[in-house]
Design brief:
10 strands; 2 domains; binds 5'-O-[(R)-(carboxyoxy)(hydroxy)phosphoryl]adenosine; binds zinc ion; alpha/beta; five-stranded mixed beta sheet; 350 residues; Nucleotidyltransferase, domain 5; 12 helices
Length: 350
């Protein structure tokens, strides 16, 4: 059976201007954007639930879904207003279908399906990781593949070779925790508010004494990462001090953890650059906002003659512009068309 709007989808790639309405609801941000030709943002609306989840110390999936449901239709109407377009000017509806929280993803998916059906526009299913990579196309209008990507978010940590817009190869990835997850868990044991990454980033700047934490040696010589060992060492270190009734040097711990983790990310990225023969590095995902990671990466790139790109801060963490940009490149390649029975895939990778 032919997919809904498949003829329209296939002819869309030849249209001069393509306007995509994109929806992102994979975690705790409800976002709706309108993006023209993959690079030009006409509207960018993000409703963050951070304050709601903060009191629980992390994202509560059921609460996230309910709040997406309350926010999404208003964001859609606001986006149309901000872009100053009418619904029939939209060429396609794009939505994140994974990875993420099942219930949260389903809210965005079902809204997108309804919209696609009502407006008679193709529905495009976008992989969240592809979106994070595409956030750099919006931030840097002249950036084009090929490049190497360091993907560092709350759910993923990987080094990817991007040979073309839709040609991805995983060179290495985490064998346990994602780096953002490790940041958030270390922050939690230090009693810092959720989300922990930005808090560790700030506190680490005040740290003076380095405590010797290390990442697992077993992956030395590979392009894979492991962050669960260092996370557990930090947690044990804090618990021991607590049991002895000693003061916890939070800033020193934050700095020591961050130094170790960022060294590991930069070292392996440099090794991957040498192996792959690339000369451009693109950082993607929420941890890409980390100031120590950025400054170390910049220094090493300068030394080696590589160019480095980060998404603008507002496109580092979850947003729908990145989904609209990724969808544009899917359309150009004739991939990503979904049927109206699209469902969420909480665990997809690339
Ligand atoms: O990409 P993202 O918004 O969502 C996922 O797709 O996971 O990433 C969220 C992660 C969280 O773990 C958050 O603590 C981390 O990015 N993060 C940071 C910083 N800003 C956000 N980690 C370290 N330093 C930061 N400045
Ligand atoms: Zn994300």
């Amino acid at each position: 059976m032919k997919k809904f709007m498949s003829d329209e989808f296939l002819s869309l790639k030849n249209k001069e201007d393509i306007i995509v309405l994109a929806i992102e609801s994979s975690c705790d941000e409800t976002a709706v954007s309108i993006v023209k030709n993959g690079r030009e943002v006409l509207a960018n609306l993000v409703s963050s639930q951070i304050e709601i989840h903060r009191r629980f110390g992390g994202v509560v999936p059921e609460i996230a879904s309910r709040n997406h449901l309350m926010a999404i239709s208003n964001l859609y109407f606001e986006a149309l207003k901000e872009a100053n377009i009418t619904p029939n000017q939209i060429d396609a509806v794009a939505v994140t279908y994974g990875a993420g929280l099942m219930g949260a993803l389903l809210v965005g998916i079902n809204f997108a399906k309804g919209l696609s059906y009502a407006l008679k526009k193709p529905l495009i299913a976008v992989n969240h990781v592809h979106g994070h990579i595409a956030s750099n196309y919006i931030s840097h209008p002249s950036l084009t593949p090929p490049f190497l990507c360091l993907m560092v978010s709350g759910g993923h940590t990987a080094i990817l070779k991007i040979s073309d817009y839709n040609k991805f190869k995983m060179l290495g990835s985490t064998v346990d925790d994602a780096v953002g997850e490790a940041f958030d868990k270390v922050a939690r044991v230090l009693d810092l508010p959720y989300p922990g990454g930005p808090e560790i980033d700030k506190l680490a700047r005040e740290g003076k004494n380095i405590i010797k934490f290390t990442v697992s040696n077993s992956l030395h010589g590979t392009l894979n990462f492991s962050f669960s060992g260092i996370k557990t060492s930090v947690i044990n270190y804090v618990h021991k001090l607590f049991q002895k009734g000693e003061q916890i040097p939070k800033a020193d711990i934050a700095r020591s953890f961050e130094e170790c983790v960022t060294d590991e990310l930069v070292d392996k990225t440099m090794r991957a650059m040498k192996i792959s023969g690339m000369n451009k590095i693109v950082i993607a995902g929420g941890v890409g906002a980390n100031s120590m990671l950025q400054s170390k990466m910049e220094e090493m790139c300068k030394r080696n003659g590589y160019q480095v790109f980060y998404p603008m801060l507002k496109y580092c963490t979850d947003n729908a512009c990145m989904i609209g940009s990724a969808a544009y490149y899917y359309i150009k390649k004739g991939i990503g068309l979904a049927s109206l029975d699209l469902t969420a895939k909480p665990n997809i990778d690339l």
